[in-house]
Every structure is written in structure tokens, then in C-alpha cells.
Amino acid sequence: MIPFWVVMKFLIFSIFVIFKLAPAESYSIDDHLIKTILVRAHNQLRREVQPQASNMKEISWSTSLQLLADYKVKDCKSSSLSLDYNGLTYGYASRLIKDITEPSITTFLTSVEEWFDSGQYYNMYDNECGYTPRVCENYVQVAWANSSQIGCAYNYCTIRNYESNEYYGVLILCLYYSAMDGDLPYISGDGCSHCPESAPYCNQGLCASATATDRPSDTPYSSNASVYKYNAWYLLVLLMIMYMFGKLY
Ligand SMILES: *[C@@H]1O[C@H](CO)[C@@H](O)[C@H](O)[C@H]1NC(C)=O
Ligand SMILES: *[C@@H]1O[C@H](CO)[C@@H](O)[C@H](O)[C@H]1NC(C)=O
């Protein structure tokens, strides 16, 4: 028979753990497939810019950018992002998809495509936008040659527009490092003909920091995240057992 106080301690501890650990960013993108698809879509579209780019870097997933995006997307204010973080500036692209209850792989994919397609309003010869500047900025950031890392997040949001209409939907946010800075997004020319020193290899028209065989995958950091998660659960179970048997108060 398990003593009553052990059961009580277990219950109290469980409640504590649930409230302490159930994070507000429980919508965080955990799915490896979604991360891979976001990275691949970016790289594919970056290969297809017109005119062709000579210094376009290959993009990979960054867990620290993802964590920052999880945090930024919490307040649903995509338009007032302050993107200075530890002295570094990150770029962003965002999209609110109305009236959907659950984002799917297609939702993420079409967001990247929509940002890229807004390039039709952008004129690279005079660096001007034939539409609301923010619309072209999504394209310029996706096609920003020097960006080599992304991290994305989503949240369920109600957003009021300037006519006070309210929209409910899913807000998708991707952060980029390094950020666009108002200059032209890339140098046109033959693919990989102007690769920077930090990304000297060529991967099908994109400047890569490692050769294809050196590169573990499109999402080099994602496996470590699950290792940390596993360790955290292990530690918790251990703490819970210690607590139940009166070693902790
Ligand atoms: C290019 O990106 C790197 C980080 O990937 C950054 O350190 C560097 O300052 C950037 N260069 C320019 C010209 O923005
Ligand atoms: C991820 O883990 C591998 C080994 O499993 C290690 O070499 C690599 O440095 C780790 N990456 C990060 C970002 O911690």
C-alpha cells in the first residue's frame, strides 16, 4: 500500500510540473518534416531568383532563431517586431492565414511561396516596391543573399486591421540571420560566381559553408533539441522519485 503522503506529494509535484513546464509556446514547430520543408523551400526558391544570383548563400535551420521566433510570435504583433537581440539584428517575414484551425505542411510551404511571389512587385534595378513596402520586404528577405539561417514559429491570433476588422487565424513568422538592410538583396550573375569566404562551396547554385558530404542535413541542429528534451524528462522523473521519497522539500 502506497502511503497517503506519497500520493499527495506526487499529485502536488505533478501539478507543479504541468504548470511549470506547459509552455505558452506549446505550438512550437517540433516536426522535423516541417523544418526540412521550410529550409528546402527557401533554398529552392533562392536558386530560382530572376535575374540569377551569384552570391546567394544556402540556408539552414537555427534552433536559437526558432526559440526567438517562438517568443516573438506569442504576442501576435507581427508588425511591431523589435528584432535586436543580444546586439544582433534579425530579419523577418510573416503571414496571417485567416480562418484555419490548424496549420499543415502546405500552410508553411505556401507561406514561403507567397513571400517569394511578392517579388513580382519588386524592381531590383531601382530597388523599388510597386506595392506596400512590407510586401516587397518579405521577398527581399527571402532572397537576401547573406542570410544563412532561419527559424520559424506560429501562433493562433486575432489581428485587427486598420479598418478595425478582426481576423482570426494562424500567424506564421520566420526569422532570418543576417537581416536585410535596405540594399539590393543579391549580386546578379552566374550561380556561385561571387561566393563569400564564409560560404565558399557551391551547392547547385547556392554558396554553402561546407561541401555536400560534410553537411549532415538541411537541419543540422534539430536532433540535438530532442536530446535536450529527453534529458530534461529524465531529470524530472528523477526529481519526482526523490521528491516522493522525501529527499526534497
Ligand atoms: C553576412 O552574414 C554574416 C553572418 O552570417 C554577418 O556576420 C556579416 O556581417 C554579414 N555581412 C553583411 C555585409 O551583412
Ligand atoms: C549536436 O550534436 C553533435 C553530436 O551529436 C555535435 O557534434 C554538435 O556540435 C551538436 N550541435 C550543437 C549545436 O550543439
From TrEMBL:
Signal peptide: 1-26
Protein name: SCP domain-containing protein
Keyword tags: Signal
SCP domain location: 33-179
Lineage: Eukaryota, Metazoa, Porifera, Hexactinellida, Hexasterophora
Highest taxon listed in the record's lineage: Eukaryota
UniProt feature coiled coil, ranges: none
SUPFAM superfamilies, per the entry: PR-1-like (SSF55797)
InterPro entries: CAP_dom, CAP_sf, CRISP-related
